[in-house]
Design goal:
Number of strands: 19
Shape: elongated
Largest sheet: 6 strands, mixed
Oligomer: single chain
CATH superfamily of the largest domain: Creatinase/methionine aminopeptidase superfamily
CATH topology of the largest domain: Creatine Amidinohydrolase
Number of helices: 9
Length: 370
Amino acid sequence: MSEVHAARRSRLRARCSAAGSTALVVSRPANVRYLVGAAPADAVLLVGRSGDDVLLSHWEAADAFAEPRPADTEGLRTEVLHGESDPATAAVAMAMKAGADTVAVEEHHLTVARHRALAAGAPGVRLTDLGRVVEEHRLVKDEDEIAALRIAAEITDRALGELLESILVGRTERHLALELERRLVDHGADGPAFATSVATGSHSGVAGHRPTDRRVEEGDFLSVCLGARFRGYRCRIGRTFVIGSSPADWQIELYDLVFAAQRAAREALLPGAEYHAVDRAARTVLEAAGHGSALGPATGHGVGLEIGEDPRLSPAAMGRLGPCVPVTVEPGVHLPGRGGVRIDDTLVVRSPADGGPELLTITTKELLAL
């Protein structure tokens, strides 16, 4: 992967050099990982004009960093920092010593205090805003990235499938969430992609519900939302089931409605489709049934090294989908005091000639009675 990372840094360097920056300091952890591979959370990357890039970090203090320090290669070397020095401040100072007069930094990631410290540590350097250039580069995934997402989805499907084969009645939301996260790791995940949500009864259908000690009961809706992280890449799946021999009529009607909204949005995931049009596809179905206000601020979003990336599939989102962009589609409806339904999938945008949207999370969307 070192060649891939080097090529990514070269593209970034060429784009920013054309804009007048003589050096770049990348501090957002997901962006650093995209450009160099696995790195400690505090690592900062200095991208120089000449192609001599430096990764700075306190490796000896990175107890949670399980992977070895990247070896120095042509075009990238590592710098071990000591004491309480800020890697970003050290990177800007290093750029100044190398003759840089303009350094672009990720202002959207830096605090005001940290930005001031960068300026104070290198008074001869003009700081400019790199903006979200790296995030823009991350938008379209290469086949290695999609392969990692595909494996993450396979692990997630497997963990969820095993849970559905176990006895659920009487177990708490919290216990089920912990079991799902353990199963993700058992099947090869680096860890969960985000905090697993298990919601029963009146809690079901709520986005981001934090599991409680409420126990699963007969007749409940059971909503589960989880995802695996594999080689840094994250996916998402959400499913809703009914506990008991058969669902009630209102549960079937609500489930069919959310399923129809989710299907409409999935079918809209084509290259060239406007972000807000995908959201509109799901929202129109819910609005026609009187549940338009139940859908959250977005129908879905991009995934990759972070669980919430660009693009955002929301009513006001601007832009158009391109091929090889992985996104989630996750509509839900919650009826206060009764329960609700969520159906979430991770897909990759593909052209009709390539078979249309590629569904990564394949656990059945049939309303199962467990």
